[in-house]
What does this fold into?
Amino acid sequence: MIQSRADVVGSLLRPPELLAAQEELAKRAITPALFKNTEDEAVDRAVALEEEAGLEVVTDGEMRRQSFQSQMTAAVDGFGEHSLEAFLWGKWHGTRDAGLGDPKTDDWTLPRPSNLGVVSKLRKKRHLSAEEFTYLRARTRRTPKITLPSPSLWVNFWSKECSVQAYPNVESFLADVTDLLRDEVAELVRLGATYIQIDAPHYTLLLDPRTRAFYERQAGGPGGLDRWLERAIELDNAVISTGNSQVTFGLHLCRGNQAGRWLAEGSYEAIAPVIFKKVRARRLLLEYDDARSGSFEPLRHVPEDKMVVLGLVSTKTPRLENRVELASRIREASRFVPIERLALSPQCGFASSVLGNRISPEDQRRKLQLVVETAREVWG
It folds into this structure.
C-alpha cells in the first residue's frame, strides 16, 4: 500500500497558454500536433511543480481533461452531444472565508441541461487514461497517480427522456460504465500503475437535502437511496478488484469544487458506515478543510486496513493555512484513527474543471509546499 504522508488529489490550475490552445484547437486554428505540444508542456510544468514542492505522489494535473471526469466522454461514444455544463450543473455556493464577497451573492446556479443523457450503447474509441499515465510515468521517478471517476457518478448521464432506448434503467447503464472502467484499470495495471484514485464526489451530495433529492429520484425514491448506495459501492469494488496486490486504490470524497464554490455540506456520519467500511480502497481522501465537513468523529468507522488522507488544506481560498493549526487538527483526528494511518493533502483539486479555482499559481505552489512541510513535521 502507498504510505506517502503528503498526497495531492489530482487537478492543478491550467496555464493560460493551454486554455488558449484549447480554444484555438476547437476553432481548428492550430493543428492537433501543435496542440499536443502545448498540452505536453503543461504536464511537464505540473510535474515539476509537484516535485519541487517535495511531493512523493504526483499527477499530470489533469491537463488533458476538460473536467476531472471528462476523459470518459472523450474516449467513449454514446453520451450524446454535451458541453462543459454537463459536468457543472447545480447550485454552487460561495466560499465563506475566501474573501470573495458575500457568499449569498456569490452563489452560482447552473440548471441541468434538458438534453443531458446517454443516447446509445456505450462504445469505447480509445483508452481513457493510458496516454496520461504513460506520459506521466516517463517524466517522474516519484509515484505517478491516475484518477478515474466512480462508476455511479455517471448516474447524472441517465434520463428517462433521453436514455431509455439505449438503457431501460440506470442499473443497465451503470453496468456498462463499470465494465469500461474495469477495462481501463486492467490496461493501467498492465502499463505499471501502482496508485489509482476513484473520484466519488456524488456520495457526499447525499448528505445535504438540497442535493440529495436528485439521487432519490434517480434511485426510485427515498427508500431506494440506501440500496442505491450499497450497490454503488459494489460497482466501485468491481473496478477496484480488477487491480492486484501491487496497486493501491484511493477513494476521494468532497462536497463539490468549482471556481472556489461548493455544492453541499454535512457530516460524513450518514454515509460513513457503508462507504468507509465496505469500499475496498485502501486510502480514503476526505475533504476536511472547513466546518462544512463536520467533525472527525465519523472516522471511527474506518477499518484498520485503511489509511485516511485528511484534506485539511483548502484549494478554494488563497488564504494559506497555519502549519501549527494543521498539526493540531491531525492530532485531533488521531483520536479516531491512529496517527500512523493518517496522511495530509489538499481537500480537492485546484481545478476540477478548466475553470479552475480562484487562486493564483503562487497560492497553489505555497499550499502544495505546506502539505509537504506539515507532513514532514508531523511524521518525520
About this structure: The first helix runs from residue 16 to 26. The CA atoms of residues 57 and 143 lie 5 Å apart. The chain has ten helices and eleven strands. The chain has a mean pLDDT of 93.
